[in-house]
């Protein structure tokens, strides 16, 4: 959201917080909830356990009897990002603390969380805990243990991270296009910081036991390369630096894969010298990768053989997942809505959230688009900010109410300027549409803008997007005529949603 936030040093006297725990039904949920119940300090207003198993059947969640207000929800197996969205949207507290279902909060976790949140000014969106991974003494960590150990150095990790609910509303929560517990937390943090909020480290400590996978666990983890493609699309080529990530190995994996493919191709074509050169390069690159992994580990025979085998498999698998991710990004689409007289009834300089009234058919239209997996955004002119008729706080309150009734929206793009300020973002200029597409990591040509007046149509077309006009009593005949010539005119929002799916 492009509103201006004025930092405030006021401290929250008593943080009101809820806990959200997405789970796949693992037995680790029991010690987590028991630890929360037995801890010292202010208790959460509620604990929302979100069951993300795709087929729950008759298998109950391992929820123990405990002195906590636990509420069970379901997210239908859509992944941890979707499960967390279900949880925080159901919560009513000012703060939402996200915990993974396999962490162990210390006995003073509640007290420390209260201290962390109570010390924050209103410009701070989130507090992140310090993660500790207990490892056996006297040996180097295994590959699986090193993967878990990486959580201790992550900048923003939702294994234990508390967000101000207002900030989650403002940026639309987690992006559900991230299907795994990977990158969705960094993506959220980058969007929150881009919206002008701060994220700080807290004093609380949470234990994350090491994860142990099968012999091909490191190969299966390469699915995350598809998520890296979405990160690049949303945050640019410098996303690794922005997220505090080290240099990746994709370039070397690509070279290794190319060398192996060339060796096979040259051999099949009867070019033994070329095949030998390519094969030598593949062998050298693969050996370097395997030796690096072996040197960092315990160097037991089993671990060494596992590293040798998986080091040959990882490069082509990583490249394949990255290519698949890039293809999905290129096929990505989004639908952007004007706010007033499109999503909600137009109330001039709306400052009271109680006066928010959805337009007929808005909820059903949005539900149709969400069911198709289409990211949604809002692009709106709000000159009342510049004119002094509404404040930024009032605008945020109205936005929260719209989100409660119609959300979530993955991006809010607001022009706070007056019509005489010659800004680049006020519709019919295209900046809001382009910013929304950039925020969503979608080619603007795959975006559809739905609005009720000519400036919505003009902003879309100037940006390179498609436009759908849903006329109201306030729409001028000339605007309808222009839209019939260059865009699409439909009678209602339900039709607009169906047309948008066809156009995007």
Task: Please give a quick description of this structure.
With 504 residues, the chain is of the alpha/beta class. It has 19 helices and 14 strands. Helix 8 crosses helix 12 and helix 10 runs antiparallel to helix 11.
What report would you give on this structure?
With 504 residues, the protein is of the alpha/beta class. It has 19 helices and 14 strands. It has helices at residues 29-38, 80-90, 109-118, 143-149, 165-171, 184-194, 217-220, 224-235, 239-242, 250-268, 272-295, 301-330, 362-371, 384-387, 392-406, 431-440, 454-463, 477-486, 493-503, and strands spanning 17-23, 47-51, 70-74, 95-99, 104-105, 124-132, 160-164, 198-207, 334-337, 376-381, 411-415, 447-451, 466-469, 488-489. The strands form 2 sheets. It has an 8-stranded mixed β-sheet with strand order 3-2-1-4-7-6-8-5, with helices on both faces. Strand 1 (17-23), helix 1 (29-38) and strand 2 form a beta-alpha-beta unit. Helix 8 (224-235) crosses helix 12, helix 11 crosses helix 12 and helix 13 (362-371) packs parallel to helix 19 (493-503). The model is unreliable at 1-12 (pLDDT under 50). Keywords: Carbohydrate metabolism, Cytoplasm, Hydrolase, Metal-binding. One of its GO terms (molecular function) is metal ion binding. One of its GO terms (cellular component) is cytoplasm.
